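Q: Entry one of two.
A:
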Amino acid sequence: MRLFSVLGFALALALPVFAKDVVYKIDTKKSVVNWTGSKLVGKHNGTLNFKEGTLTLNEKGELKGGEFQVDMKSLTNKDLDGEMKGKLEGHLKSEDFFSVEKNPISSLKFVSVKLKAKGVYAVEANLTIKGKTSPEPVKFDATIEVKNKILTGKAPMNFDRTVYDVRYGSGKFFENLGDKVIKDNIELTVEVVAVP
């Protein structure tokens, strides 16, 4: 019996132990997408809320993947007040821009993640807006930290809105706009809090 016990113990030590990936679900109340859109003169900024999302870490605690859905109807402006704020939000949600009634969800899905430094990753992801996914992935660096089983992450990124058929005020498609030109590049800073 002792021989079988020793052999069983030795066999158990010899077998590889496969750790599992850990999926973190984002807290939609504590996570946010900050946006900035610029004109030739001036700029506007605001926020968008997540509908849902996950980040996956491997057995080493390193970022492996991620997928998010953003509620476009939650688009809010932060730098204006009153009537001007309402007009801008309404215009951004209209057919001129993001057409949120027809396209209420935008999404981001990681296709490549590479470790650059401790807690910092080079990410490539498919971005879908107005039902259109860009032919080339968007690229950005994401910083991830886990403390007491709570994951926090931050990622600045930007994209060309015209790729997603958001052309209003673009100098690429309209002439003689003067100082009313709206720049094509939109800047985002994604901030997430997530738990297993």
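Q: Entry two of two.
A:
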Amino acid sequence: MRLRLAAIFAVTLVCLGWVVSAIDVVQAKSALAQTAWWTFGPMFLCYVGAHAFRTLRLGSLLGVNVPFFPLFAINSIGFLAINVIPLRLGEFVRPAMLKDRHDVPFGQALAAIVMERLLDMAMLFVMLVGLTFVVQLPTEGLMVSGVDVVAAGQHLAGLVVLLGAVMGGLLVGIGEPAIALLERMPVVGRLSGFARRFREGMQGLLRSPGRLVSVVVYTVSLWGLTLFGIGTFMWGFPGIPSSIEAVWTTWSVTLSGMTALPTPGFFGGYELFCTAALLLLGVERSLAATFAITLHLGQFVFTSGLGGYYVAKEGLGLSSLIVKPRSDS
């Protein structure tokens, strides 16, 4: 664990070092002085709307009646935890809180969140594939540290979605025999409870076309609002293109970096990939790096502020957000 943490922090520092070293202080001060800071307002409103749709989606995936505002608070605290706890361990905060506050079985909540992540990976895959049609990419690809990040993102997102679809298909199609076989296997047998909950969640969606449609609508809506919010701030930042293609490219590539490098607060990977996307759009390196850092800080402040508000309201401490995976269903 310590070695993994050390490696993550090393990657964070290397990525941030590359981005910060590109910044011309005089140019950065000039750009920040000309920035329309009021655009943070609409951007934050879009984030609140996206968070509301994310809450509605999670409620539909859970398949149980959890009131909207308590679930909104749990989502806010959960995303704060994802941002501040390394190794994606913050993902376990929401299932733990749903278990403790609303008696939703941990495995059921975790299964809903896995389905949530699969939907987001499917959207990322669609955006990365669409990117090849809306933007003229270099012949050699969009290279970052010798890696074509668009192709790598497509492969990673596609693989995750494919594996999720295969797993869901096997569990729904074969059902209990597959889970019983899993129970008899050493080590992975502990996942049988989660597999059963995941199967029940998939079956619930398939038996309720209305719920399935609503989940898709919520997913598209929250992604659309996020893109619109980012586009608003791109419009307000001097020298940064804000066309649909530019926003699409910037967020697709940035999110690929955040997925590939889940560093604390996503610092390092976010800035590196956001800068790379803007370089592809012809933005000068120093200006691209300045914008990437500013945008990320704005998003981090929003996530931390919203989550921190509910942490304080619930009387929680940050140490209480560190949750170990549970095997109970």
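A: Comment on entry two: The mean pLDDT is 84. The beta strands are 143-144, 147-148.
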